[in-house]
Task: structure prediction
Amino acid sequence: MVASTRFTDKILTSTATLHYSNSNTPVSGPLPGGPTDEIDFSLNQARSIRTNLTASGPRPNPQGSYHYGLINITRTIKLVNSADQVNGKQRYAVNSVSFVPADTPLKLADYFNISGVFRVGSISDNPTGQKMYLDTSVMGADHRAFVEIVFENHESIVQSWHIDGYNFRVVGMDGGVWSPDKSRKQYNLNDAISRCTTQVYPKSWTAIYIGLDNVGMWNVRSEFWARQYLGQQFYLRVYNPVKSLRDEYLLPKNALLCGKAQGKSS
Result:
């Protein structure tokens, strides 16, 4: 087994040999090829990971054959990460907004309809080209919408994105800038894998399909923890005006309340 780094100035490689206790056969053949910083190599490798639709067959709807490619997209969201300084301090952002926490947990503020904590729509669906600024960024979304989200990375490092509360299908990724006409033609609309975290390679994009079937206030964030802490995150508010236990349970009676929610009754 050979493990090696990717996209680093100094290439680190480690090897190991695994064998059964009663095996006397030595390792044969050359070691696998060395590390490469070619993005196309990693893109092709990532795109080769597919769902096995023949598993657990035969039956009309084999394991993993969720027909996500036949569902109409109701909205496209394009998210671009960036790095800059705000007020002389290093910050990171999504669509020019660098997230700052509020004094009250956003879900509590939403549950109790507390004003002044956040504003739905404080982050745009698309990059604005504005200079980076600070805000408690919350994007609104309709319950049961089927959404295309494009993560576009203009930087020279690998990005990793996570969405709380959901799994999604990674339908496409490639180098350069995403375009609706060209990029969608290479989407995998049949057997993409289901994930909650995805990578975006340097100077590249990744597209996902996600069905918003889970009401709530969900964090969308960088898994590069320093970047997340310094603003590369926001909240996706999946909302249904019809309050129903079918969609979301009530707040537990023993929930800890703080900030402007302190003293509220559930």
